[in-house]
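Give me the fold.
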Amino acid sequence: MYVTRKQSLRGFFALISITVVSLVLLFAAVALSASELSGRMALLSVDGKMRSEGYANACVEYARVFVTNDASYRSAQYQRFQIGSGTCTILSVTPDMPGAGESLIRASAEESGAVTNVVAIIYSTTGDLISFREVGTF
């Protein structure tokens, strides 16, 4: 039996079709895998940010204790604390700022590359919180 040119081309087209379909499926699998990986990395980033926010809050609470014990307390230098794998720093405590009987607290925290900078204003005598906000940079 002789193989005609038409039968020979049919096999060639089948082989090329299978190759193209395999490549499309391979690229689809790689794309889905990459999106899954980036999703997991985003979750890790969110987790680090949440932890750094908690550490910054802890620094403000620590400073509130200092101010409540001494209404004229002023931090002379940065006070850094290691909390697990993160760090928390009380950058400054300024009495009578922005008003008399109030203290301005600046704190920063870092966890897994995520940084949170916060500014808090408290009543110096009671330690009650007047305002608390996150800022981009100091």
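DSSP finds one helix and five strands in the chain.
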